[in-house]
Specification:
By secondary structure, this protein is of the alpha/beta class. The protein has one domain (15-300): Rossmann fold (3-Layer(aba) Sandwich). Helix content is 34%, strand content 17%. The protein contains 10 helices and 11 strands. The protein has a 9-stranded mixed β-sheet with strand order 3-4-5-2-6-7-1-9-8. Helix 3 crosses helix 4. Mean pLDDT is 80; it is low at 1-19 and 78-82.
Length: 315
């Protein structure tokens, strides 16, 4: 829903903070330094999720010599056009990370250095992109970008960054595979990032949905809440991003406009509310999700009586 706090002021705050080596918007910085092991980000589309994940990977590599960070990208399984766009974005991220590492006296190299986009995309598609940060001549930390494949997840270890997991078709299987080795080492960290899934049947819906009736004011730092799943979630809507200085743009003229003005121009308000307002919009005709029903069944087992009314009953 439209936010009454939106104004034409551009948020009244600087768009980027430049206090560190890497520039962050206010909501990115608020999320970046969260000490909690598990954190999910439900952010507006094009809010800088992948950029922040890439920088977290670099930060963890610099922090712990010899560590492995695995970035799981749902884009690898979502088709060619998405794949090329995401590969191009990751190549840009890696170039920026190389500059940041050099500014900190470290050397970052990848197996995709100096490759044309077509060859880099091929590496990305086959989960072979890997970056190494050298601490000395013999010790390096690594970050790799791979597809969300639960069949190979049992061999993963280290920190996990799961990008666009709300779009991953096998989200539940991957989450189930990841959590056991997170438990095995208390130093490992896990980050999820996505916009709300387009379907309430997707497993991430149950993981991320806010408490019923929850309301927030627009804040440049975004807002935090704990989902029913027990996951700590950072929520950044178009209005939050606007408070941090991020304008939206007119679909025809490209003129800078506010989130309210952008929403007013949208034909599909439901899609806008999901993609930019971070609303969890239920689909279909069911009032209660299958996951909620399954939990209710489990809690009532041995305590309730059920009758199957879908079969014929002889009188």
């Amino acid at each position: 829903m439209p936010n009454p706090r939106t104004s034409k002021s551009g948020g009244g705050q600087a768009a980027l903070l430049k206090k560190g080596i890497v520039p962050f918007r206010l909501y990115q910085r608020a999320s970046f330094r969260q000490p909690i092991r598990r954190l999910a980000r439900v952010w507006r589309r094009q809010g800088g999720k992948s950029y922040l994940l890439a920088n977290e990977g670099l930060d963890w590599m610099m922090e712990t010599p010899g560590c492995l960070t695995t970035i799981i990208s749902a884009a690898i399984s979502l088709g060619t056009e998405v794949l090329i766009k995401e590969a191009q974005a990751w190549r840009t991220h890696l170039n920026k990370l190389r500059e940041a590492a050099a500014a900190n006296g470290a050397k970052l190299e990848t197996n995709g250095d100096d490759l044309p986009l077509e060859d880099f995309t091929d590496l990305f598609e086959h989960s072979k992109i890997e970056a190494k940060l050298w601490h000395d001549r013999t010790t390096c930390s690594r970050t790799r970008v791979i597809a969300p494949n639960p069949a190979t997840a049992v061999g993963w270890t280290g920190h996990i960054l799961f990008d666009e997991f709300g779009r991953a078709p096998n989200c539940q299987d991957v989450v189930e595979a990841v959590e056991p080795f997170m438990e095995s080492n208390p130093t490992f960290r896990l980050r999820y990032a996505t916009t709300p899934p387009p379907d309430d049947k997707h497993y991430s819906w149950e993981m991320l949905a806010p408490p019923p009736g929850a309301e927030w004011e627009a804040r440049a730092e975004g807002n935090f809440y704990t989902s029913g799943y027990g996951l700590h979630v950072h929520r950044v809507t178009a209005w939050d991003a606007f408070e941090a200085g991020v304008w939206m743009h007119h679909p025809d003229t490209g003129e800078k406009i506010t989130p309210d003005e952008h929403r007013a121009l949208a034909f599909d308000k439901t899609a806008w509310d999901r993609n930019y307002g971070c609303e969890f919009v239920a689909g279909g005709t069911a009032a209660i999700s299958l996951a909620s029903l399954a939990r209710a069944f489990a809690l009532g087992k041995g305590e309730c009586t059920g009758v199957n009314v879908t079969e014929e009953i002889a009188v």
